[in-house]
């Protein structure tokens, strides 16, 4: 267990390349191919982190000054995902999250209730977090472990559901996202897409990046849009002209660089994805396999970045205006791309729909984060996390506010029965997806033989 914790503590930039390498060897790729793939993926993640770091270092101070200038005074501090992950893995259930994730995944693969092989093991901290939260709420360690198991099942089912959208929109064959922040927002985006399709003024509005660029010319290009948004945020923060222009150029750089570093990630994953596909075809004829990965692969898309930058001031405005909210968005403002990156393909890149859906998700999410903040704080203290100076209560805009957090907190009120119902619904959904896929395959075979 200590060895596993040591590897986990290295973070995704080391852990994922190691997993990619071992996975490549298991798939019988050449050792040199496995090494190159793992190293390239690691380099890609370093690149993503550098660009996200640029975004955080630039927008963080601007957001802080904007909040101060607008007079927003909220008592619960958004500590951000790095602190949330530290709390999750530092909790009593944290050390078991990865072994549980692997075991549950293998069982569901063997019985055919998932097509997803999750190799993004580091992000199982999301399941550990809900486990730690339920432990803090109920005082029961076994309830926390049960939550982690059920959450793992839910993530795999949602990952299977999202694979179609990941392929159709992002063009990633045999890949899906198993990120605990991104996948739950399918539960919001899918019904909203049906609503948007009947709303006058929205149902026929084309607002994907290509349509925007055609209408706006150079002002619709992603880099110019980044410049404009950066200037707007800097102005709202009350910065001087020099600082505003510097922020604008940095946001333009983010819009250009993020897709480039994501391309490096994909370069490393390509040979492993192909090897996995061949492996499944040979040993399991007729079965599909999705490789479950971090949704960082999607955050570089122009529609995701543009929507995210627009949602940052909106999130701050919602925090100030929503009655009952006590959370001050800060640490996780730059992770809004992870909240919306699976909404974007459902809305086919429509920025207007994404912003509307993102606003709804963040609005309700702030109330969820406010409600769980006492339990979040208790879990952090139990894990030995030191609260920020001056903070008495903490939460997170990412995992403190996602739909699955609300589901498991509510279910825990009914004990094991509540968690059992959530798990049962997830397994039924997995079975329905399996039957649907089988029916599609049968119809395809009939058409081929006709």
Description:
With 450 residues, the protein is mainly alpha-helical. The chain has one domain (2-47, 58-440). 70% of the residues lie in helices and 4% in strands. It has helices spanning 2-8, 12-26, 31-70, 81-90, 94-110, 125-138, 141-170, 186-196, 209-216, 222-236, 241-283, 302-321, 336-340, 343-346, 351-382, 403-412, 415-449; strands spanning 76-78, 116-118, 175-177, 290-293, 327-328, 394-395. Helix 5 (94-110) packs across helix 7 and helix 10 packs across helix 11. The longest helix has 43 residues, at 241-283. 52% of the residues are buried. The mean pLDDT is 85.
Total of domains:
1
Estimate percent helicity: over 70%
What spatial form do the alpha-carbon principal axes imply? Answer: globular
In N-to-C order, the SSE pattern is HHHEHHEHHEHHHHEHEHHHEHH
Sheet with the most strands, sense and barrel status:
3 strands, parallel
Structural class: mainly alpha
Average of the residue pLDDT scores: 85
């Amino acid at each position: 267990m200590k060895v596993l914790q040591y590897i986990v503590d290295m973070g995704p930039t080391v852990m994922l390349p190691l997993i990619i390498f071992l996975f490549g060897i298991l798939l019988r790729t050449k050792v040199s191919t496995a090494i190159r793939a793992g190293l390239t993926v690691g380099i890609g993640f370093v690149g993503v982190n550098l660009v996200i770091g640029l975004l955080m270092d630039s927008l963080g101070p601007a957001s802080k000054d904007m909040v101060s200038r607008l007079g927003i005074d909220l008592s619960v501090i958004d500590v951000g995902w790095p602190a949330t992950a530290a709390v999750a893995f530092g909790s009593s259930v944290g050390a078991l999250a990865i072994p549980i994730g692997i075991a549950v995944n293998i069982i569901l693969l063997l019985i055919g209730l998932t097509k997803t092989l999750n190799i993004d093991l580091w992000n199982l901290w999301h399941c550990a977090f809900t486990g730690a939260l339920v432990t803090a709420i109920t005082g029961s360690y076994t309830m926390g472990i049960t939550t982690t198991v059920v959450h793992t099942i839910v993530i795999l089912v949602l990952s299977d559901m999202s694979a179609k959208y990941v392929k159709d929109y992002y063009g990633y064959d045999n890949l899906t996202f198993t990120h605990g922040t991104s996948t739950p927002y399918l539960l919001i985006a899918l019904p909203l897409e049906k609503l948007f399709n009947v709303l006058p003024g929205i149902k026929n509005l084309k607002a994907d990046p290509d349509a925007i660029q055609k209408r706006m010319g150079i002002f619709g290009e992603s880099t110019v849009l980044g410049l404009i948004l950066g200037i707007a945020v800097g102005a709202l923060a009350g910065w001087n002209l020099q600082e505003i222009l510097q922020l604008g150029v940095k946001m333009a750089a983010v819009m250009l660089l993020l897709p480039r570093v994501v391309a490096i990630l994909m370069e490393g994953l390509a040979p492993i994805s192909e090897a996995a596909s061949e492996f499944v075809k040979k040993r399991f004829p007729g079965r599909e396999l999705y490789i479950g990965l971090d949704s960082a692969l999607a955050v570089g898309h122009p529609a995701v970045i543009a929507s995210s930058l627009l949602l940052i001031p909106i999130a701050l405005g919602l925090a100030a205006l929503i009655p009952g909210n006590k959370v001050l968005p800060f640490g996780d403002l730059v992770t809004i791309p992870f909240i919306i990156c699976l909404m974007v393909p459902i809305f086919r890149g429509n920025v207007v729909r994404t912003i509307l859906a993102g606003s709804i998700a963040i609005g309700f999410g702030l109330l969820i984060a406010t409600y769980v903040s006492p339990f979040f704080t208790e879990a952090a203290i139990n894990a030995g996390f030191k609260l920020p100076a001056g903070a008495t209560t903490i939460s997170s805009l990412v995992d403190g506010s996602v739909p699955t957090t609300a589901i498991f907190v509510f279910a825990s009120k009914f004990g094991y029965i509540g968690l059992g119902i959530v798990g049962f619904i997830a397994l039924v959904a997995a079975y329905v997806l399996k039957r649907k896929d089988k029916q599609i395959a049968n119809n395809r075979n009939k058409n081929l033989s006709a």
